[in-house]
Design a protein that fits this description.
By secondary structure, the protein is of the alpha+beta class. The chain contains 3 helices and 4 strands; from the N terminus they run αααββββ. α1 packs antiparallel against α2.
Length: 75
Amino acid sequence: MNFLLPDQVALLAECIHPRYRAYVLVQAYGGLRSGEMAALKPAQVDLTEGRIEVISSVSEVGGRLIWGPPKSHRG
């Protein structure tokens, strides 16, 4: 796996369309899986507390989106 360095993350967030900056930063530093990021809804993001509640995940199976619970620490 290849990982971006913090200065590379900052450069990407600066260069990308402003609409996607928060996505880049949360994906880089939040530790969420791609399916968890895709399933996030605005009500699950608390900017005041700096908290994201991960309650679901979505994946594509056979061309269909399948919604379910996030993967547990045991999974």
